Amino acid sequence: MGAALRGHSGAGPRDVPGLLRRLVAVTDSVRRAYRDAGPWLWVAVEPSGTGGARVAGKRAGFVQTGRRFTDWITRQRDGRVPGLEVSLPHDVRRLRKTAKVTKAVVLGGAVADLAGDDHHVEVFRRHYAHGTTAHVLAGRAVTGAQHKVFASLKRPVFADEAAVVGLTEPEVVSALGLTDSAARAMSEGQLDMGLVNCRDPYDSPHAPADGQVCHVAPAMCMLCRNAVVFPEHLPRLVLLAEHIEQMRTRLAPPHWQAVWGRQAAALAELFDECAAWMPQARQQAGQGRARLDLPLGMRTEYDQ
Length: 304
Fold this sequence. Notes:
Number of helices: 14
Radius of gyration: 33 Å
Shape: elongated
């Protein structure tokens, strides 16, 4: 035991080597008084034989009645003051896990930072990173990264009835970021991609810049800077939002978040922006006055 401790020359009083040295010093008197206690790290003086008339030094047993962690918690309770309320199971190892997760909450950052200086990254990953709080933090980090990516893209543009009527006017064309030819084609319904209009189907941010028509519409239209939404499109978008919610019950949560999470967030933001038009849009969708025609390829690729 002593040779093993000398092999780890930590200098801090509260690092692992320092704590072990302090424990050895505290229990050294038991080992000196009772030579048969053995070279155990945890030793204690306990009753020996029947009746408890004699004691002996031996390896400490923490499963005996009165020496367990749950017994210590019970002893802290007093009728005059509120006692410790510790959820079951009572296990001292939960204190360490709580400390590590609290450290993760405070520090954040990479796993290498969270592991600290008392064990390896793999130990943290296998024994602490699966905790609920750590999962929440990881989800928050992923969501934050996705939000930054989503924010870097231009959101779909909503054009109200006045803008639709005056779609060929220069002021409206400029406000929507359209070209004159795209505005004319959009007013004639030539750029309807199934869900919304597209100001340039040949310049998709989700497809290679090879001059070919966008092949990911309408699956990614709500995440595209080229999308232009008219009030007449809202009932179809209501049906799309309902379809996405149905997929939440069919797909595993990580899969749903990866495939549909950003679209659901984009639809929610759009519906907030178009709150004045949403009651009528929901009514039309509920009355069957709108259809959601999704390509077969989209259903097989995104809905399974």
